[in-house]
């Protein structure tokens, strides 16, 4: 985006009132002709910009694809995650995030409208239709021992679950360790990778994929009969910027708890928001496959499963067949 285009988008986006061409030109130290050209260009890119004579210009709506400047305006007041790298298409935000880890000292967010090689657990393909979901990776750099990482995903899953439930009024449950379900349909997957050595954790790369605005037809096309989107569940389009802002704030709060509280402080809430209790499920961890029931989650985040023969098993993570 050209210098003036970025500045005019930011200036208009941060002002609710109408701004005259003259006012914009003077503030940004450019000509009114440049302002008019940029406004015309922005309209071609999908910005809806109202213009009323004797009043000026005002952004009515922004295009569905992420705008890096607008994302960074939305995140700029956050204490922790206030810097974002935004792309239209990447192989995977996890890959791009890892490539920036040594270049960016702080924590940061990577977003993309589309992923061509989105990956879930066990390197499963992750469908990331353009501008239909939140495809995001968050890089955090805590000073913690590797052992502490066993509960990180649990705190993050609560952040995601509470945004969906509290702000969109959609009942959803956590399927330990990496999914959020609405009823019997997946709406979100998240996974945590880390870069660590004997000195401890160097960086956490948490990848989150949330289905926001897919239609049923779009799921059928990619054979995702057991997937749903927030739009399908509450019947109206989800504003990706609003969702992103709410989620990042919730993640910051839960991350602060992760750093300062033991998991036992939130265990009761986690268990209440989880869906894996009192069901006979098949748990697979590596070559180990157990049919049984989850009966508890330990303070270290491990799941306790009682198998049909009455034996207890501890899983750090598992692929659970519902
Ligand atoms: O490449 C990337 N990965 C991360 C980032 C952004 S997207 C994100 C996906 C991470 C998913 C990891 C966990 C997982 C869950 N599941 C089950 C499932 C399947 C289909 C839909 C659904 F909601 C849940 N499979 N893996 N970049």
Describe it for me?
The chain is of the alpha+beta class. Helix content is 32%, strand content 29%. It has ten helices and 14 strands. The chain has helices spanning 3-13, 21-28, 32-44, 68-75, 93-100, 152-168, 216-221, 230-234, 240-260, 267-272; strands at 48-52, 56-61, 84-90, 108-115, 133-140, 173-175, 179-182, 185-197, 200-211, 280-285, 288-297, 303-307, 312-315, 319-321. It has a seven-stranded mixed beta sheet, with helices on both faces. Strand 10 (280-285) and strand 11 (288-297) form a beta hairpin. Helix 1 packs across helix 3, helix 2 packs across helix 3 and helix 6 packs across helix 9. The model has no long low-confidence stretch (mean pLDDT 95). The structure holds the ligand O=C1N[C@H]2[C@H](CS[C@H]2CCCCCc2cn(Cc3cccc(F)c3)nn2)N1. The ligand O=C1N[C@H]2[C@H](CS[C@H]2CCCCCc2cn(Cc3cccc(F)c3)nn2)N1 is lined by residues 92-94, 115, 118-121, 124, 126, 128, 135-137, 178-179, 186-191, 207-209, 227. It catalyses: biotin + L-lysyl-[protein] + ATP = N(6)-biotinyl-L-lysyl-[protein] + AMP + diphosphate + H(+). Its EC number is 6.3.4.15. This is Bifunctional ligase/repressor BirA.
Task: Record keyword descriptors for this entry.
10 helices; biotin--[biotin carboxyl-carrier protein] ligase activity; seven-stranded mixed beta sheet; 32% helix; transcription; 14 strands; single chain; 322 residues; aa-tRNA-synth_II/BPL/LPL; ligase; nucleotide-binding
